[in-house]
Amino acid sequence: MNTVDCPSPHSAVLPPLYCPYESALHEQAEVVETSTLAWADRFGLADDPAVRRRLGAMRGAWLSGRVTPRATLPGLLVGTDWQTWLFLFDDAYCDESDRGRRCADTVKTATHAALVLDGGRAPGQEANPFLTALADVRDRLSAMTSPEQFARFTAQVESYLLAQTWEAAHREQGTLAGFAEYVTMRRRSGGVPTCLALIEAVNGFELPGAVWSSPRLRALSDAVVDIVCWANDILSYPKEASRSTQVLSLPAVLCHERGLSIGEALALAARLHDERVEEYQRLEEPLLRDGGEEVRRYLADLRHWIAGNLAWSLETGRYGLGVVA
């Protein structure tokens, strides 16, 4: 077994990240923050006082308010609750939990979540706050989406759940993925595609299926997922290194695979992030010109994800950075 030690977070100097877009904030973010905290309390997702304090400091509605600043109020409410579920689930079952390093337990958890997502019932569902909260999100989204939109969302959630078993296998074995494997699986494990699948629903429009699944639009969405996830890997590195059972992130992968110091790995990760942003700009240009009004609307929300996620990452208490870009 090749056990991987995470470099000390105290030696990490976080590099600046390139963002050519301005961040906006939904005018109802503060109202939705109160609502989502009450929603988490109602389902018992943060009964532990320390978890509840972290949830309050996270300011989750500011994330959804920045990445979807033009959302309808019902869309912003359900989008914020879903992102809150993802964050709390990640902490409880994935990188910060002993359960997240036991592959068999993670497979069971993912299976139960998939059963709920598909409208079935999972063993012990009534006693598991994450399963009951997931059923609530599923029902609300089903009521506000078309069958095709809902199918896109559920497919992305199932992919996310599968990726959690991939992460658990690496933690259980004490190994890190190689760079190519990591890039592919990180697109799934971060949960961002589940949120991008809701862009239309929370903003009150719908792309035709052939347009949504077109190679050019999928390539742009993949680029945004990489940008958001890699930014998260970089900016959350000190938090992950100090709290996770094992860090499985872009800087850690680069550090291990290429024999870099953590400072060198963070700097390289930032360069890769910045190059991906520039690639997104190149890929976006012909679609902005030729894609039509609804495609341009979707692309505007992809740009909100790039700028909004970065702004929130620098202002949230989740990562302890505390400075708005």
From TrEMBL:
<keyword id="KW-0479">Metal-binding</keyword>
<keyword id="KW-0456">Lyase</keyword>
<dbReference type="GO" id="GO:0046872">
    <property type="term" value="F:metal ion binding"/>
</dbReference>
<protein>
    <recommendedName>
        <fullName>Terpene synthase</fullName>
        <ecNumber>4.2.3.-</ecNumber>
    </recommendedName>
</protein>
<dbReference type="InterPro" id="IPR008949">
    <property type="entry name" value="Isoprenoid_synthase_dom_sf"/>
</dbReference>
<dbReference type="GO" id="GO:0010333">
    <property type="term" value="F:terpene synthase activity"/>
</dbReference>
<dbReference type="InterPro" id="IPR034686">
    <property type="entry name" value="Terpene_cyclase-like_2"/>
</dbReference>
<keyword id="KW-0460">Magnesium</keyword>
<comment type="similarity">
    <text>Belongs to the terpene synthase family.</text>
</comment>
<dbReference type="Pfam" id="PF19086">
    <property type="entry name" value="Terpene_syn_C_2"/>
</dbReference>
